[in-house]
């Protein structure tokens, strides 16, 4: 199955609560994002957002310049419908939604203009990039779109995390190996290993890192 078809099927066939990565609120992501970009005018992009409620919480906190990207249109459609039916509907009308595979070279150039974002957030996309070509495409696009001095909040499976998720192979990283993968354009500010409890009761180790775009 094509990768896009795989994720469309996941989001169509399962509710958010049935997925292993589900959290009612991404507290760590929200805390690190608001700390890195205190200005509510900051341009923030959430990569592989799925149906997460981070966009809801950022809107509720007053952020006004949000871009939400996911490979699955179904995930974006459900998030938009959730927000449209909420008290955040007016604020959500200004959110930019992109259905795209961030690691594919055929992403239209206008989708992510150069030096656009103050913060790039990714919880659990990068560890699915298991080939050097995928990772290089992702990193090149990230480096171009993030402003100098901008923050990358990147969460992957940690050294003791699972090697497979949603039927797909996944990579595991330490702070050092992730820094080496990203290269000298990104300087690690701080990191943390955080245990995530899945809805089924299993524990997954995540590595959270905050990098500065040099």
Q: What's a quick, concise take on this entry?
A:
This protein is α/β, with parallel strands linked by helices. The chain has helices at residues 3-13, 27-36, 54-60, 73-84, 89-92, 132-145, 175-182; strands at 43-47, 65-70, 96-99, 117-123, 146-157, 164-165, 168-169, 186-197, 203-213. It has a seven-stranded mixed beta sheet, sandwiched between helices. Strands 6-7 form a two-stranded antiparallel sheet.
Write up what this structure looks like.
With 214 residues, the protein is an alpha/beta fold. The protein has one domain (3-213): Vaccinia Virus protein VP39 (Rossmann fold, 3-Layer(aba) Sandwich). β6 and β7 form a beta hairpin. It has helices at 3-13, 27-36, 54-60, 73-84, 89-92, 132-145, 175-182, and strands at 43-47, 65-70, 96-99, 117-123, 146-157, 164-165, 168-169, 186-197, 203-213. It is globular and about 45 Å long. The protein has a seven-stranded mixed sheet with strand order 3-2-1-4-5-9-8, with helices on both faces. It has a two-stranded antiparallel ribbon with strand order 6-7. Helices cover 31% and strands 29% of the residues.
Structure keywords:
single chain, 214 residues, alpha/beta, Rossmann fold, 7-stranded mixed beta sheet, two-stranded antiparallel ribbon, 9 strands, 31% helix, 29% strand, globular
Rg, rounded, reads 16 Å
Q: What number of domains?
A: 1
CATH top level assignment: Alpha Beta
Topology-level CATH name: Rossmann fold
Mean pLDDT, rounded to whole units? 94
**Sheet with the most strands, sense and barrel status:** 7 strands, mixed
For CATH, the homologous superfamily is named as Vaccinia Virus protein VP39
The number of helical elements comes to 7
Strand ordering within the main sheet: 3-2-1-4-5-9-8
Overall structural class, as computed from helix and strand content, comes to alpha/beta
| Global shape | globular
State the CATH architecture: 3-Layer(aba) Sandwich
Strand content: 25-35%
Instruction: Enumerate the spans where pLDDT stays under 50 for 5 or more consecutive residues.
Output: none
- Span of the ends, CA to CA: 38 Å
